[in-house]
Amino acid sequence: DSPEIKEEVLRKDDRFLTLLKDVYVESRDPPVQVKDGGGKHLPTKQEEKRLTKLGHLEALDVKKVSKGKISLVEALTLLNNHKLQPQVWTAEKIAAEYCLELHEVNSLLEFFIPFAVQEFPKETKKAITSRKPKQLT
Questions:
Q1: What is the superkingdom listed in this entry's lineage (predicted)?
Q2: Which one is predicted more confidently, 78 or 123?
Q3: Would you list the DSSP string of 25-94?
Q4: Rounded to whole angstroms, how far apart are CA atoms 92 and 103?
Q5: Which of 31, 56, 74, 133 is buried most deeply by CB count within 10 Å?
Q6: 39 against 12, higher pLDDT
Q7: Residue 107, pLDDT score
Q8: CA-to-CA distance for 77 and 94, rounded, in angstroms?
Q9: If you average pLDDT over every residue of the chain, what do you get?
């Protein structure tokens, strides 16, 4: 709070300023070391793409995917096609149609099964709605 301390803090010292002007800092980054990825190559930006086969569901999904991959809508479509017509939509045909590896298609068909929608018979609904509610007295 004393004025002498405030004045000392705000005062510029010419000797220090001239010494500060003579300071030169030079910085160098250490050489970059590339780690060996074990023979794996990084993916290139120019991957081979293919157009998706979506038909009437085209607006719901991406337009292009990398070869060897499928979109979500395509996966659901091919699983449903295989479920409805397994003798027509075989693993070999799916692999050729969607540019996939045969062992990956076999795994997909083995472990992913689309849901089946089942409706309850109308008699069950009648039995539930025909009961009269109890009246409170």
A1: Eukaryota
A2: 78
A3: ----PPPP-PPP-TTPPPPPSS--EEE---GGGGGGS-SEEETT---HHHHHHHHHHHHH-TTTS-HHHH
A4: 10
A5: 74
A6: 12
A7: 92
A8: 11
A9: 77
Q: What are the structure tokens assigned to 96, written together?
A: 């050729």
Beta bridge partners of 51: 64
Three-state SS at 11: coil
Tokens of 89: 């939509």
Domain spans, the chain: 68-113
Q: How remote is the C-alpha of 112 from its chain's centroid?
A: 19
66-76 exposure pattern, b = at least 16 Cβ within 10 A, e = fewer = eeeebbebbee
Helix (H, G, I), strand (E, B) or coil at 115: coil
Residue reference for tokens 């050729």? 96
Mean pLDDT for 34-53 is: 60
- Residue holding tokens 């030169």? 24
- Which residue type occupies 58? E
pTM for the model stands at 0.46
Q: What is the DSSP string of 93-114?
A: HHHHHHT--HHHHHHHHHH---
Contacts of 55 (CB under 8 A, 6+ apart): 77
Question: Token pair of 48, please?
Answer: 């081979």
